[in-house]
Write the structure tokens for this entry.
Amino acid sequence: MRPDIKTDFPLFQAQSDQKPLVFLDNAAASQMPKHVLDAITEYYTSYKANVHSGIYTIGRRAVEAYENSRAVVARFIGAQASEIIFTSGTTASLNMLMRMLEDTVNEGDEVIVSGMEHHSNFIPWQELCKKRGARFTVLPLLPDGTLSLDIVRSTFSDKTKIIAITHVSHVTGTVNDVKEICRIAREKGAYSIIDGAQSAPHMRVDVREMGCDFFAFSGQKMLGPTGIGVLFGKKECLEKLEPSGFGGGMIRTVKSDISTWADAPAKFEAGTPHIAGAIGLAEAIRYIENVGGVDEIHAHECMLAAQAREMLGSISEVTLYGPKDSIHTAGIVSFTLNGVHPHDVAEVLARENIAVRAGHHCALPLMAHFGIPGTVRASFYLYNTKEDVRRLVEGVQQVISLFHG
Ligand code: C6P
């Protein structure tokens, strides 16, 4: 990664603390390069118009930019533009999908999730099962918090209608073999839904190669603005599913007795979308591609995470979570310190201007699996450096001297 890459990010320049910010909460929200901020500002200052209204010049330009952004997102994940629905984020994508799939799940059917899911890919399916009288099955995890494909295979039955699994764990960085999981789902005639919130920003995703039916992710975790997300749906799935929201921009005809819908993706985008968000997300993708692409970003983050794991792992008070081998993990490291609450660790690190996330990370079933209330999590991105890892480890050592003397 270019050594001066942080200079592209105004937030890193704007810090006034004497110690430079070490930002290690990228799994929650990433920072935005100037290129993205400029693209958003340009929309607001030069051609702000609704994508549903204008034949006038700036209206046309807004439509063009919005649809071009859809094409950029589609290309980035190996999809067609008509398979990309803009939402407000992964949570919104999964909740919308839950409503779209409601009628396909009946009493006695089954929906499978795993014990490592973010609540956003857990509760919607639990609620769907409650409403439809279906069985909600949570795949148990191995002691290191990984998923066994044998368990996945043996859990499927002819009642399974949906499997919803995360691509990368936002807590341990575990990378799931989603291609195989999607293959099993296809064989069993179930829908496969992949939560890509922690994969799309960091590693190559090709939805065709993966073979998933649906894939969800958030723009703000990949250098884009907040409030924009994506739901990819296979063309044949989107064609047969009903919309979950109704209103402007999604209709073909409206009469007092019956209304009909436009083709996907418009059918699923009722109301005015987050136009600036979509433009910002597309610019973030262009930026990612221009600085070397996701493969390079992935290698860089994995190198930093492996280094952090090794350095933290050599401290006797530290417990690391997740698989031991770095091959099946992404750029996320979760740990606890003996006798120190994760929030206290984060508090002391914050005083050193080191930003990490501490707590249950919206993954209470995974915390229950590990038998802990929470972890401290460092999540890396393209602009992090070996110096950031060194500062993190130094900070952890300070916490230890403070609490253990
Ligand atoms: N995880 C984290 O700190 P939204 O909030 O809708 O953009 O993304 C939800 C979500 C869904 N799935 C996974 C795997 C995620 O990691 C997240 C967001 C953040 O880990 C905030 S809790």
Notes: The chain has a mean pLDDT of 96. Residues 7 and 13 are 7 Å apart (CA to CA). Residues 57-76 form the longest helix (20 residues). The radius of gyration is 22 Å.
